[in-house]
Amino acid sequence: MRICFFTENSYKGGMDKLIYTVINNWPDKDDIITLLCNRSHPGYSYLKENIINNHMIKPSNVLCSWEIKNKLKDFLPNSILSFISFSLKYIILPYQVIKLTIFFNKSNFDKILIFNGGYPGGNTCRAASIAWRLSKKKKALMACLSTLKRPAWYAAPFEYVIDRFLSTSIFCFIFPSKFVQSTLSTRKYLMKSKHRVIFNGIDSFLEINSLPPKNKQQENNNKTKFLMLATFEKHKGHELLFDSIVKLLDTSNNFHFTIAGFGTIKDRNRIQNAITSRKIDKYITLLEFQKNTFDLYSNTDAVVVPSTKFEGLPLTALEAMSLKKPLITTNTGGLKEIFELNPNIGLISEARADKYSNNLITFIKEKEKIKFYGENGFNTYNKFFTSKSCAIKYHQLLMNENIT
């Protein structure tokens, strides 16, 4: 069977890893999967490098509205640019649907699985759902990996029309957590579609790498090392972490944070300025996006996930658990659900600097807990978040459009 995976993205990171993980662990070895992705996606080559076997990635060749916005941003003021960006999103949707309908008519795909970062998310993801219905007379399966957002009043009429189309174009939505699933209520007409929760899954880093992770804590008992891996988006909680570090300094300075991720120049400058303005530069190493994160995980004691909103089920948390690294998270979205599966995988708190810093202090003062939380996290990963389990569930759902 020939299967189309479809996505649109402007950030590289966890979503890419989930997509190629599902592809590479697809249980039916006779299926051939083609991932259609916007070539402007910063993670396009990263995906290409990691997709294995007979599967492949190809450019979708459909213009995205934000690509036009990026070309105009140096020539227009933000007020005009925002209006143009909003208008383009809906003006070019018919073009996107028509182009994809023609493409799917000529293709030999039997099934389609669309990976959307959230909802509305990528507009071409929504266009692909409608185009698949028009061309193949079949419905699509869509995975929404982050929250569905209620439209602003001025966008509501346009979103109402699109949602009505999608309600007849998608046979089921996949969500990575019950929290993300609950946000479906913000979209009245999409609630009529079937929906399922499938936890994200990853390949175990211990299986991918021949050498076990170093226990840096044994090498240096004076400093506790923390790691944060996330895109440089505001909701990932960098500033919450920095405020927590400021409070942490009232108690201890025997720690160091390594922070890595992908973002625009503007994103990175915002984060660097936030660090400098708090005078905490010497406690933080700020890195760009890292293809190979195994060494970063190996040289850390605990992984921090200080997200403030929109968090579905971050792969960073699962990677940490697969390497027996404890977590320090907020109780935002799907993070809370991981701790409900096992509360002994680390420490969780409200998204407040005073609460979060207290949990950081615990790991600095009570280092013997690191191993305990790490072992519990590893067991929880093996039970709920393996790549094979995730891919099998995606496969079963895609093959069964008549689910009840």
How would you describe what is shown here?
It is a single chain. By secondary structure, the chain is an alpha/beta fold. The protein folds into two domains: 2-201 and 387-398, Glycogen Phosphorylase B (Rossmann fold); 205-384, Glycogen Phosphorylase B (Rossmann fold, 3-Layer(aba) Sandwich). Helix content is 44%, strand content 16%. It has 18 helices and 13 strands. The chain has helices spanning 14-24, 44-50, 65-72, 78-91, 93-106, 123-136, 156-167, 178-182, 205-208, 216-219, 238-248, 265-277, 294-298, 315-322, 334-341, 353-365, 369-384, 387-398; strands spanning 2-7, 32-37, 56-59, 111-116, 140-144, 170-175, 194-197, 224-229, 255-260, 284-287, 302-305, 327-330, 346-349. Strands 3-2-1-4-5-6-7 form a seven-stranded parallel sheet, with helices on both faces. Strands 10-9-8-11-12-13 form a six-stranded parallel sheet, sandwiched between helices. Strand 9 (255-260), helix 12 (265-277) and strand 10 form a beta-alpha-beta unit. Helix 3 runs antiparallel to helix 4, helix 5 (93-106) packs across helix 6 and helix 14 (315-322) packs across helix 17. The longest helix is centred in the last third of the chain and has 16 residues, at 369-384. The model is unreliable at 216-220 (pLDDT under 50).
